[in-house]
Amino acid sequence: MISFGPTEEQDLVVEAVRSFATEVLRPAARAADETETLPEDVLQQAWELGFAATQIPDAYGGAGEARSPVTSALVLESLAYGDAALALAVTHPAAFAFAVLDQGSEDQKRRYLPLFTAERYHAAALALTEPTPAFDARALRTKAEPKGDAFVLSGTKSCVPLADRASHFLVFAQSGADAQDAFIVPRDAAGLVIEREKNLGLRGLPTGRLTLERVEVSAAERLGGERGADLRRLLDSSRAASASLLVGLSCAVMDYAIPYAKERRAFGEFIAQKQAIAFILSDMRVETDAMRWLTWKAASQLEQGLVATRAAQFAHAYAAEHAMKIADDGLQVLGGHGFIREHPVELWYRGARTLSVLEGAATL
Amino acid sequence: MIDFTLTENDQKVLNAVREEGLVARKYARHFDENEHEFPPDELEEAKDFPPTLGLMLQRGPNDTPLGTMSMLLSAGQTWGDYSVRMRRGKGGLGNAALQAAGTPEQKQKWGHLTLAMAITEPGCGSDPSQVQTTAVLDGDEWVLNGEKIFVTTGCRAEGVIVWATLDKSAGRAGIKSFLVEKGAPGFVVAHKEKKLGIRADDTAAYVFQNCRIPRGNLLGGDESIPKQGAGGFRGVMATFNMTRPAVAALGLGMAEAALDFTREQLREAGFEVDAYGAGLHSQSAVVAKFQRLEALHEAALLTVLRASWLGDQRKPNNLEASIAKAKGGAAVREITQGCIEILGPLAVSREHLLEKWFRDVRITDIYEGTGQIQHLIIARQILGYGRAELR
Lengths: 364, 391
Prior knowledge:
Chain A has 364 residues and is an alpha+beta fold. Chain A has helices spanning 8-35, 40-47, 69-82, 84-103, 106-112, 231-263, 275-303, 309-334, 336-339, 345-357, and strands at 125-127, 143-147, 150-161, 168-174, 180-186, 192-196, 207-218, 265-266, 269-270. With 391 residues, chain B is an alpha+beta fold. Chain B has 13 helices and seven strands. Chain B has a four-stranded antiparallel β-sheet, with no helix packed on it. In chain B, strand 2 (134-138) and strand 3 form a beta hairpin. Chain B starts with 7 loop residues before the first helix and ends in an 8-residue tail after the last helix. Chains A and B meet through helix 6, helix 7 and helix 8 of A and helix 9, helix 10 and helix 13 of B.
């Protein structure tokens, strides 16, 4: 039955997260970007909202609420409205936790999930993207070769969130011509080199390059154990999550450009009174809606256990295209001020481009 | 709970509409090429297809709400063909206006008629406040004079709601709507318009020459006259909150037909058009372009469903109705133009219907308010501006 109505509980969650995003994340965003440093107190504050822990069963120390990709989508959009880099930083550990929760073996859940229900912020990361032109998540360069009761991983991963602090990495690798697996690799694994990266946008989110030189992991660390994992589903979830963040970022641009256009005068009237500007703004309103409903559709398919590949692709591709356009247009509405770092629009402009090429930076 | 799945009951109705649509589609080319003919009220195959009303009645509170469902049904019908229907329903745009602005007695008296709506004139379209058709009270009769064009279902309709001004100097406040029945003295259906698309559809031009109608045919009754401001005007404009998403749905049904045809052709030619989730870089440009159009269709359809769903919840949806219309109207242009680009020469042949869908959808970004008018409405709302601040 078609419904665009969030549950009452979801409405409350959105309200709480939205105020956290505007009161805590947004004010911290510029400094994090300029200094390329994560504000530790903000991470801890966000952790206490329980983004990961609420959806982890009580058997592993969590609050035991049902897994809900739709709730996650609503939360990600709201957080990214504050700041996308910080939104990723505070939620990325949950991407690792949810991957283990949804697809891990019982042994993996017992060993790793309690890390994310503890009181202190704990970082772990997904390592998916690679520094190769025309990166394709379905055809990875990183290889996993079986060796007795273990696997040997070789390759390079880039844009790995929280690489400066993650205790573990979920490394995606090609384990056969058409087969992919993910492996949990501890930070101190022999043969793993971690380097800090500097990026165009989302500078508040530390990312790193991982070089894996014949890193050996036991078969028990393959996600899902002997039966392996459905990485297609993880990718779908990651694309829908990216789309959620892009919706939040786009709304931030729109809500900044509108009041600016209503205050800025030119030729005797406010620029918002000119159709050339007003129609740019109305287009933002149309497209943020369209992006959001596509994202909700993908999230709800994931929640219902349906194959969401098509919906997630649509949501991600559409949101990426239009978020970039909205950030670009927002900058244009602000004119020269859009180019000045006193205003956040240039930050969103860099962020939109960066966010849309990062796969595996968030999941629902 | 946020949900985008159709229930079994929803699906049954939609499947039935699609089956009927496929039959209607067999007649599509004929009525496109023979513009002067009207498609029949009921196709001869109708005897083999029980009315879908029965299936509609089987739906309950756990199925998709009626307004939202009706958008999918509209799209399902035009997926078959815009003009040819298994059974032609009664009613036109004027009926919605009668329901919105008529007195209880007027609704009772004329509710059973198929009513067209005549607003546009040779010199005014998007700005109906410039209506030049006049209405003058003469004893117990109104006397109408003027011309109306682009009147949808204007030939078939049994009556029409006409916008006319009592006082040109009063602007919008002077405009009232009148019900004129066919056969009224001085009311002439001048001709059927010849069009780019939706050719089988009945679009008329009217002339009113000293056309006399009873005083009681003023919509809303005599008490609607002394109202100051544009109250009556707004009342009729409110009709559009219901019809705008529906118009977008009509276009999206045809755009979906275009996508289905294109997908089938690509599939036969060996393109992996059903492979989703691949990195964009490992796809052919053709498939990437096609899937982009599919996403655009989905995006636009969701804005339509959003607007109608809000209506179902009895929540305000004026802004969302315009969003749906703006998005839908623009999307169907891009989709049908894109499908032709993808398929090339094959697509321009009148052997296939794609070129017809390309022509047919074009109207949906024009009538019921052009895309630009929708953007004006959206912009005013998000900026908190009235017509004085944003013209």
